[in-house]
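quick one, three chains, predict together pls
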Amino acid sequence: MMALMRVTFLEGVRSRILYGIFLFALFVVFLSIVFANFFMQDLGKVAFDFNISAITLAGLLISASLSVNLIAKDLDKKTIYFVLSRPISRMQYIFGKYLGLLAVFLFAYLVLTLVSGLALVLLKNLHANYFDSFSWLAYLQAVYFDFIKIMVLNAIIVLFGVITTSSFVNLLFTVSIYIMGQSISDVINFLSLERGQDAVTPAIKGVIAGVKYLVPNFEAFDFKVISAHGQLIGWGDFFLFTGYGVVYALLVLCLAALIFQRRELL
Amino acid sequence: MKRVLLLLVGIAALAVFHAVLYGQTFERKSGLDEQVRVNYVLPASFTRAAALDFKGVIADFQLLQGIFFIGDKIESQNRITEAEWNYLVRIITAVTRLDPYFFDTYHFATGMLTWGAGRYQDAINILETARQYNPDDYRFPYHIGFIYFYFLHDNQKGAQYLELASRNPDAPPILASLSSRLAYYKGNYQFSIELIQRMLDRERSPEIRSYYQKRLTALENALLLEKAVKQYKEDLQQFPESIDVMLKQNYIDKIPLEPYGGDWIFLKNGRVYSTSKFANASQEK
Amino acid sequence: MIQVENLYKSAKSKKLLAKRKQILRDVSIHAPAGKIVAIIGQNGAGKSTIIKTILGFICPDSGTVGVQDGISLGYLPENPYYYDYLTLRELLWFSASSFGVKRNDFIEKARAAVEKVGMQAELENRLRAFSKGMNQRAGIAAAIVHDPDLLILDEPMSGLDPVGRRMVFDLMNELRDRGRTILFCSHILSDVERLCDEVYIMHQGRIRRHLTREDLALTQKNVEIIVPYSDKAADLLTEPSYKAKRFANSLSVQADASQLNTLLDHLHNHNIPVEGVQSAAVSLEQVFNQIVTEEDVT
């Protein structure tokens, strides 16, 4: 499994896609330096927004390009036969691939955090007066939870990867789940309002209740807004949200392994 | 070789043609857009759901939209209509829904309401709401205090809010002394200069900076005159009757600039004022 | 070492509502230890399906697959495309390390494997830059790097030049001499004939013939005589016991080995010069062709 993880990591870091995305993220980081000047007071917050967005966007783009192809390519190019003829079980295959993928993201996030950190240091020195609410710890907090979100998202990509051989279909499914997961908490909030009660039929309400338990609550990992204002969460919350992400990812991966066990590799 | 040359000539010709068209598109398109100015803002709840992982940055962009809109209005000296004010309020609402902690939103909103529309109480209300979301941010009470002092000339209330602001551990130490002095030095130019200088130091919007700058010049010149008057009084045991007397007796080199365009008035108690009351003619409604 | 018994496998047809397509019908294959066993058949006969079933990629509808416990296995897939961002060394390390080979032993084993496939110079190059034949060699190296007890090769000769084919030929002989078991499928019959201990001939999902070494020796008794073309020679050789085929300037005559002397005398008597005599290695092909045409008629 370690061997497979290593190979998957190499696949990621040797892919030209990754460096294209790095360049793009660098561009967004550069934008932060330009755009911060348009604002009046909370420049630290604006710089924070741009840099964290660069990382988030890069994470999503890597997921949409590299991750969705991961298993699809193995099935398509038949490299899966080569892998599974080694003493690697299908479960190990799923987890090995996934962990390799996480290693790629870890690498990408480290690089991007470093690069955006440099941009923030620069901006902070340029506009020291307007970085009151900025906190490095909060920045790491936002990056950390974005990584947890990527962890969950990629588990879902792996699950769809064993269900469909088409990376495009996988992408569509994953994007749908991502959007649902991001907005589900807003929808539920709306429904709990007086005004929302009459807005939808009971049938739709039932569907939403179902979706609520199936789809991960991606918004739970979005600490960008409060982190941008230098607020840190407590250890209890830290472990709660981390735990939620890890358990959900594990659950999805086990399901993927189960489906993959039964899958024919023609 | 010939073919390459032909291609190069073709590319050069197209590039020139493109440059001409490209320049035109900008003007033409903004002209067309001007015909139907929608000023539409998506409902705040929709934006929030659609912003996905990018709430912070979308808030930034929406606010920027508002800032550019108003900046454009100020540039072209257009009066801002009621509908346009409402548009602005919708932007502010949407942005605050995305990020209720974003100080720039409140800063922009109150800046526009005070400097632009003269709706001081509205501005104070917005800042009061913001204060509830951000109880730890000293900047909200500080700004409220400033509005009381600067626009509403209510030093008592101003001092009260500055005092509230100074209690915050993050607040700069100077706030404490400012608030204590505000109550006692009513109409003291030296004090006002300090307060406005502080606002100016932290202000990045060029329009608002120019407001402060103008006021600062007026106050500094008034202070200069008051100092000269004091010297005159010490030397001659009486207050000067007019500015010309001071000029004639070389207490001042020249008549200092009154940036609001009024004339300097000397009061019997040694204070110096201006007929403009330090207000823009165009601002008076 | 491998026991495949009564395998049946069907797959969904591409067409809607069509009957399920039968891929394997009652397939039984035995690969004894220390032997080279080949499965031959046309494209689509079901060779790869058997191999994939043995490796557990496919579940049979019925029947059993037994592979001896505790043996290490090397496999060369049909399509020799691997992770092309890896270097050959990394591919071999992935293969070897998953079989528990340690770093220290690996260097020696990797060197031995690449030498056997003639890729010493390519060890540090990325697979991306490899041609199809080089990929095939890389795949063979990856299959043998950990010195497996059992080797399963899907079309080992495909994409290889004559030198490469010779190399694989020698390699398989060498491995058998060292007591390894090899199961492979191919459609290059001359290689199969000379190399194998046992041959299974497949057609349309069924095993049609099972030939052992002895059966193969028997079928090899044909000879081929080549004479320059002339009308006289052509007339002479139209007798039904000879099979004459005309090429540009020559005639090729096939006959049973026992007829060789009679035939040579016959030609000599009529002053027809003989250009060459060789044993005809096409007999397996004849068996194979017979099976294929037979089936097409029915």
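Residues 162-177 of chain C form the longest helix (16 residues).
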